[in-house]
Amino acid sequence: MLHCRDGARFPLDVMFGIQAKKFNLGFIRPENLVSHGLRVFREMCLQRWGFCNIAVLGSEHGKQTWKSYFLRRSHLELKMTKGRSGGDYTCKSLRGHTGRVVGCVYLSGNSPQLPDFWSSTPTVCSSSSDGTVRAWDVQQGVQLWCSPVQSPLTGMVADGGHGGVITSDSTGLLKAWDGQSGQEMFFYSSASPQCTLLPYSLEGSSFLSVGTSQGSVHTLTSPSLSKLSTLVVCDTFKVNLLLASPDKKWILAGTTENMDMSPKVLSSQSVTCPSEEEDPLCQCLPVSGCSAAAFLPSQPARLATVHCKDNSHSNTHHNKVLSVFDVIIKKTRFKTEIQVEQVEKFELVFEGRASDILLEGKGSSTLVVAAHRELKVYTVKGELLCSFKDHTEPICSICVDSFRVVTASRDLSLRVLTWKTDRDKGLTLESRYHLLGGSHSMSRGFSYVVCDYSTIVASVEAVDGKDVLKAYSFNS
Predict the structure, then answer these.
(1) Residue 191 resides in a domain
(2) PANTHER family under this entry (predicted)?
């Protein structure tokens, strides 16, 4: 049986007949499904998921792959939409850390771009103040390896180009770890007790930018961790705002600790291939007191920032503004410079302290904003598409992808919301269900969440200081 979006259920032959009529292919009888399957299933896949990997599915895998892909992905997305415990997903507790979890990233995940995504085995890596890095099989809930104990760790990122991770510790030491074996490969001393890490690839090479407590950004090769350049961004204040544009041409660097300072847009080319004769290209944004920022995934040179209202440096909810900028390079005969043009601006109003705002972009014109217990979706022009108050405690982390939004809260729950297209409003969200994290007597709430296509992994802050990861795997 297959389900329609309105909840109706049809036998396979009826469902395919409906689809065939929709695509003007004529009614396909069950005995003719094999001969007509390639076209039917391809059309059904592309109509429902315009971003599915045509090149892979349409090559040597043949028509059976289109059928398997459509049936399995439809089945999986139905379960990810319903979220019924006991049938739609399994939950594993990943235990082993004896300290606070300070980072969690996917070493390998599953993606709908792969024709056999259902057969992949996601693995995550976690780092902790207990001084260890651990790798986990998400579906089985078992530990794959654990690093030797070292100084308390403060952060971690995935080195996607080489399948490993890079960590920072309380002494400022950065280390690159092999994702398969857990072996330490390279190290670098930043002399900063707090580091913000940003991995990215540019023109086939991998790099790591490191924001330090002293206000500078170090750019290193990855995973070898050899220093290429250093740029002072916000002298004496910690660089804790560091992100790259989708095409990796731009880096935004700044601090959220000083309301008078403006973040800077850097050319990644100029910090990864520095010139001895010229300073790296950078430009300040014409706003101060930035508390959150995000690039638009489908508009790589478009940047959204949440910042203080003009001439107001208070942290109350009445003083926050969201501005959208376009970043361009302007070249003249004698000079090349970055220019930042403001294209949109609107006020944000939330309950609670707006300094705790989380911001993510979706597509070319949608912004997801979370603050305190609220989640809101805006267009870049400031139109409020939808808002939600599903949590009883503040939202501390969000994860946004092409299918859903997941919010993690101090109330020890995850809220799953899925994207839908509304006839009047266009792209919007629909709130679906909660995933619970355990007992309030043992836990203080969720602290962080990460997702791939069919799994969700979140960190639970434990009362006894021994944080636990909760891994939710949806059954395909």
Answers:
(1) no
(2) F-BOX_WD REPEAT-CONTAINING PROTEIN 12, WD REPEAT-CONTAINING PROTEIN 55
